[in-house]
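Case study: Flavin reductase.
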Amino acid sequence: MRIDPTELGAERIYRLMTGIVVPRPIAWVTSLSATGVLNLAPFSAFTFVSQKPPMLAISVGRKGADYKDTAHNILDTEEYVIHIADTPLMNAVHDSSIEHPSDVSEVEKLGLETIASERIKVPRLAAAPVAMECRFRQCLEFGDAKSRLIVGEVVMFHLREGLVNDGKVETKALDPIARIGGPRYARLGEIVTLNTVFQTPKSKD
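Here is what the predicted structure looks like once written out:
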């Protein structure tokens, strides 16, 4: 089967790509509006782009003709928190994707408890096993839809007790959820460990 992307609209290409690029980790992002409304939204176009300093990237699209609240908030305040959610939080993650007016807080709607961050003003979610306080560093726009790739630096990591062993995260204990095509989510399933291969050290520490 062959599909010519020039013959498809943006919505159909989106459906195709979100079914192909799977599973995708989910950045569950809290951000503050200029008027102090705490926004919460999930983004599955998400990865890390640097280890020193630690930097993460999320792709934020539009809702209609305007950018989503998360993009506005990050560019206005330059602070936000990226969380990694586990299985018990799956429904809350999904429900936080419902579009509300910018003066409505998804955190309040869902009744989620927050904790003050240490280095930024944006609160973090108490229930999330991982929270990363971020400061905005760069924004790039791509494509006809002008999706915004937002890169931020992690200035503080918060991880649930018991998740880190010898400097590495115990992924099975983390139990992260992932996004696949449509309103569907996935868990890790079987974890396969292969032989360690040589890699040049990334630094002396």
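For the exam, be able to explain this: The mean pLDDT is 94.
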